[in-house]
Write a structure and sequence with these properties.
The protein is α/β, with parallel strands linked by helices. The chain contains three helices and four strands, in the order ββαβαβα. α1 runs parallel beside α2. The chain is globular.
């Protein structure tokens, strides 16, 4: 099944890059991939959203779940880059500080 997003990961760098669009139709598959990534990586996880054109509340919930799961393993997550649309959503929902953003 094809979704409107693409996930590139590097376990060695603990880097996740998500591009395209994330809405409720693709969120279950994204969550599954994020769970797998947690198991194969270590240390702080960096998330690059510089090519993510759209993120809805279900996609945001997946990122918050990623943070919760990493916190339970004494790990951290930081978003290193965002598009304007994603930045607006993170600002409006007041979750930027959860991901190391100001």
């Amino acid at each position: 099944m094809s979704f409107g997003w693409k996930l590139d990961v590097s376990a060695e760098e603990a880097l996740i890059k998500i591009s395209g669009e994330i809405d409720f139709t693709g969120t279950p598959a994204l969550r599954e991939e994020l769970h797998k990534f947690i198991e194969i990586s270590s240390g702080e996880v960096r998330v690059d959203l510089s090519e993510l054109e759209y993120l809805d509340s279900s996609g945001l919930a997946s990122l918050i779940e990623l943070r919760r799961m990493l916190t339970q393993k004494d790990r951290t997550v930081v978003i290193i880059s965002v598009t304007e649309q994603v930045d607006k959503l993170l600002h409006l929902t007041q979750v930027k500080s959860l991901f190391g953003m100001e």
